Request: fold
Amino acid sequence: MSEGHRAAYVAFDRFPSAKGSAVHIRHMAAELFDRYGGGLLCVLGGGGLPAYQREGGVEIVRFGAVVPNLLDRAEAFSAWVADRLAPHRDTLRLCHVRDPWGALPALSAGGRLVYEANGLPSIELPYAWPLAAPSTLAKIRDLEGECLRRAAAVVVPSQVIEAAVTSRGAAPERVHLVPNGADPVRPGLPRPPAAPGRYLIYVGALQPWQGVDVLLRAFARLADLTDLSLVVCSSVSPSRARPLRRLAERLGVEDRVTWQHTLPHDEVAAWLTHAELSVAPLTASPRNLDQGCSPIKVWESMAAGTAVVASDLPVIREVLGEHGRLVPPDRPAELARAIRVLLEYPEAARDLGRRARQHVEEGFTWKHARARLAAVYDRVEGH
Amino acid sequence: MFWGKQKAAIAGFHPLHQALVWQRGFSATQPAAGWAALIASLHRHAGLVRRAKWALPPRTLDVLVPLILELCSDLGPKGTLTVAADLRGRDVPGKTGPSRDLPVRPPVRSATETLTVDPWLRVRAELRDGSILELLVVDRTRERRIAKRNPRGKYKAKRKSKSIQIIKVRRRLAKGAQSRVPAAPPPAWIGVFVREGERRSVLATAKLHRLPQSGQEQVDRILTVATEPFRWTPQAGTGQRSES
Amino acid sequence: MTPCAVTTGFFTLGKCGQMAVAGCPACGRALCADHVADGGLCPECAAARNQFGHPAAAAAYRRRAHRHRTAQEYTDVGWYAGLDTYDRAPFDPGAGADQDYLDDGADALVDS
Reply:
């Protein structure tokens, strides 16, 4: 039997997976476990992943129970985490969590709590679960507030989320900004064999607030550029892309759109590197405006040296700064025009890409993010 | 002879099982192994005894057995569990107190109130962390009989009864055991009293204004009340108390 | 000696601690001879698969079921908000914006 762990990372998310959050979990957990010489990683299982895995000092346990209802599943996960953490109660020094259902068991598990708020379920859940009642969301909001208030430190990836968690009662001096990052793509990655000639690329999940529909409409306006294709690298399964495919058919662009699903992370980098432009058409929904996010797709496009065209939202401005092209959100015509301009001036696009890459290399690689996170851990331990 | 086979089967049961059949109750102290034998015997009952008169009293299989099972899992290697169960129900002599007349005004002719107190379960367990858990469950029923007469001389009699249940759990901690006030208060329906001393004891009491409607609910209620005293010591799980 | 890591007890939780002779194929925890439940699983994994042949599996199931039913009672186990059936129903599989319920792991609470 193992010694008690000193650190634990809890995420209600499948790991590893093709999603941006998995990249995030990998780097954040690595920092935590390097610091404490191993630890316990509690994540969701399924998809053929083993329930238990041990890598050096790191124990990975995966929650595998099939509970159809999401809230029931979250609560079952919570209870399961409490069970997993209980044996380490005496030794546990730090718990790093990402959501209230991970935070609840961690709060009573001994050790200090670092709450990493990449998003807030009370804002984000209604997008996937439109029938959720406002009173339910208010309860979830209370729950978030409780966890945020009791956390020793709250880590946020953007200033917009910082404002959101502060409004939920997190003490401002305990909220720390740790922007996401991306590792620079090594030059000379081979062109993916399936890649069309010239292409725009979208990388990420396909929720409505990602604005992929806006991108498709904008792309339909570029019908005169017959050599141009659009590649959608979806991090979710094909069945979730069905409504968007239907839209592409209606717009008459289906034969110019290439769909790639759940590609491994390094293949995505190759796709990104060889794209003309990367597009992040996030919509101006409360999810992006009030809750905020730190879109990894933008970070990775920058790191690949590909020029980014993105919606003009506070969260994007924070990430992209001067190193990309911003367009008003939810406006296909404006988006199409911006893409067309950048395609006509390839030097300008290359220059944007180069500057973006430099910007990332100078301060926003995962190494930098990990150093910032380490500083937060230092402060938490110092108290 | 009538029912001979079934009578013979009962004679082969565990003595406490026989006491449940004949006296509808028992009181005994034994270690976990003894209780396991009783429970094994109880599970054979339905297959061997069909006569309704000799059926196991209510609350045996759905309340008593689960409770004994859970408590046995917490007993120390030398710890014993004492159970005094009285499952005769409340309508037996000795459980009903004297009736009392209530003040009345016309048209009510008389109103009497009777209290029935049925302490049907007492448990004492010596747990493996050195503490002692005591449990008491009492059903109390208040019955009121009202007689009235209307101006035409017609009599009416009414009965109203209300049952409540009181659950008391006391845990006497081991000598010198660490304890702390729990971070969050217990649910509103559970009261807690702490008596300091060489051995701190935590008493949790609850009064249910409605009797539990199923065996499972009853067990859950009892165990929920019994949870409270355990929140006063640092959570186990890392106790790693090896039984060997 | 590797001690058996099966949780015992209802209120006073502890590990069994006897010498382990096997490991659970599902979760990998060490098991002593008394705690090898149906199919060589540990009691909790067996209970999760609805195999209650072993008394410890039945106990694990009851312990878990009781905790589940009474999780709303004590605030400090974490259910501050007390989400009831009405709150839960909108999160049933059929109620999502995406009608195809597929367990592809895209069900995280937040997306970074």
